[in-house]
Amino acid sequence: MLTLLLPFLLHMTTAVAATASWSHLQPDFYSETCPEAESTVREVIKEAMIREPRNAASVMRLQFHDCFVNGCDASLLLDDTPNMIGEKLALSNINSLRSFEVIDEAKEALEKKCPETVSCADIVIMAARDAVALSGGPDWEVKLGRKDSLTASQVESDNIMPSPRANASYLINLFDKFNLSVKDLVALSGSHSIGKARCFSVVYRLYNQSGSGRPDPAMEPSFRERLNKLCPRDGDQNVTGDLDSTPTVFDNQYFKDLVLGRGFLNSDQTLYTFAATRKWVVKFSEDEVGFFDAFVEGMLKLGDLRSGRPGEIRSNCRVVNNLPLHPARAMALAY
Ligand code: HEM
Ligand SMILES: *[C@@H]1O[C@H](CO)[C@@H](O)[C@H](O)[C@H]1NC(C)=O
Ligand SMILES: *[C@@H]1O[C@H](CO)[C@@H](O)[C@H](O)[C@H]1NC(C)=O
Ligand SMILES: *[C@@H]1O[C@H](CO)[C@@H](O)[C@H](O)[C@H]1NC(C)=O
Ligand SMILES: *[C@@H]1O[C@H](CO)[C@@H](O)[C@H](O)[C@H]1NC(C)=O
């Protein structure tokens, strides 16, 4: 009997060893060390949203941009240093990502209550969940216990983060690299139910789609006229427009808008244009509960993307602990 079981047991041991770095993520990770962690973050997000409703969208987006680049490790939050150009300068992030100060506020509140305990990577995950829940969307339990990265790289972000010009077949392939399904892609794109985008992200679509010199034919004409006014050909590309027609409420209106040809970004409207994604757009436009369930599933998978690199609990989300001195400064101090 034992000889029969032995190969099985050996197999089990290797499997456990290979996934050991994953196994410590759990819902009650801070229940002993920082029982107020989740209520503290939620309170900070609630206040940030009262100050400015868009903070919900901006905070939630951070989870996507952090987790796609080397896992959910708060690499996104690191400011540049003389030795390191981080992700904040990457094309998808510069002049675009915002609300980093809301994460800082949550971190400061947590450092007062339980110093050096709660990672910035976990704060992003909690904050994204809270932003959705407080905007009228679903609420869910998150797994915690992540570590914060020691480095960040602009190039890594530029190589991965998708352009708003991307089409559905490109996005299907990209998400598949993270083991995210077509359904996950469409559901997670439903995050654009809240928030805004810049004219920068849409002008080519209004005036020169795919180099054609013409607008994207998938845009409903009256919607296009409105966008033409908001984003004239030679206008200020930092002006922003709403990603759906109810930009502070997390609901399935985004999908209803796509069905009507009123998606803001090409990457949004393409989900309705392409057959492989259209059925999910239609489904979610008719079934808000189905959308919410699929969105939660997608956010959990996104939150499970792990970094294989060493980490720490940062005390300031913008800098690594014990930042080594820049060589020039070290030299100056030595004399
Ligand atoms: C599917 C591929 C995606 C593309 C190509 C994409 C692209 C974009 C772009 C271009 C913007 C506007 C940026 C600007 O003009 O400054 C934006 C905004 C936003 N994105 Fe995405 N996104 C994608 C998926 C996601 C996912 C998966 C999430 C979250 C789970 C997300 C959350 C958001 C939110 C909430 C905003 C509004 C942020 C704000 O108002 O500050 N996006 N996205
Ligand atoms: C989608 O985008 C990719 C990459 O930009 C491009 O190579 C491909 O031709 C596009 N597919 C369609 C059907 O437009
Ligand atoms: C996707 O799943 C495969 C098979 O389970 C696994 O080997 C791979 O590491 C996963 N990829 C990511 C990015 O999680
Ligand atoms: C439209 O895009 C094409 C290809 O990118 C480019 O060659 C052309 O100059 C653009 N036209 C205008 C009016 O910007
Ligand atoms: C938007 O504003 C920033 C400064 O806030 C500026 O550096 C950038 O060039 C502007 N971008 C566009 C697309 O107009």
Automatic annotation (TrEMBL):
PANTHER family: PEROXIDASE 17, PEROXIDASE 72-RELATED. It comes from Nepenthes gracilis (Slender pitcher plant). Ca(2+) 1 binds at D66, V69, G71, D73, S75, E87. The keyword Cytoplasm does not apply. Its EC number is 1.11.1.7. The active site is at H65 (proton acceptor). This is Peroxidase. The record marks R61 as: Transition state stabilizer. Binds 1 heme b (iron(II)-protoporphyrin IX) group per subunit. Substrate binds at P162.
